[in-house]
Specification:
Length: 142
């Protein structure tokens, strides 16, 4: 995975790099396989692994489950938003819990978009593209 600060075109094939944090292996694999058509997907099984990956190189987008073992997704997002090197990474959060309070908490810690599980992989890919295009539009002033 290359650094966001070193290049702006994604991987060597020009695909944006997505760090996908999901503790359920089957779900992580399903999303990664589907999304790898349009993105370079770097999988992580938990928040600590995601932090280690981001220490080496920054993704263009982070997609994380909010219910993770150990450090949960809320804590991961809060950690990212407090870190000056990481805070600019757009974040999509996946949640198996419904309700306004849960969604409000996700927004308060810094999630850019919140999607309810189950989320179909094609819908997740489409929203990832929307979020990335929004980030690029802000960067270019379009």
């Amino acid at each position: 995975m290359r650094s966001r600060t070193e290049s702006s075109g994604g991987d060597s094939a020009g695909r944006p790099v997505i760090l996908l944090v999901e503790d359920h292996q089957d779900t992580r694999q399903m999303y990664a396989e589907f999304m790898s058509v349009s993105f370079e997907v770097v999988p992580a099984a938990d928040a600590q692994q995601a932090i280690e990956i981001m220490a080496a190189s920054l993704p263009d987008l982070l997609i994380t489950d909010l219910s993770l073992p150990g450090m949960d997704g809320f804590q991961l997002v809060a950690f990212i938003r407090k870190d000056s090197r990481l805070r600019g990474i757009p974040i999509i959060c996946l949640s198996g819990y419904g309700g306004h309070a849960h969604e409000q908490r996700a927004r308060e810690v810094g999630c850019d978009r919140i999607l309810q599980k189950p989320c179909m992989p094609d819908a997740l890919s489409e929203i990832a593209l929307e979020v990335l295009h929004g980030v690029r539009d802000r960067a270019t002033g379009s």
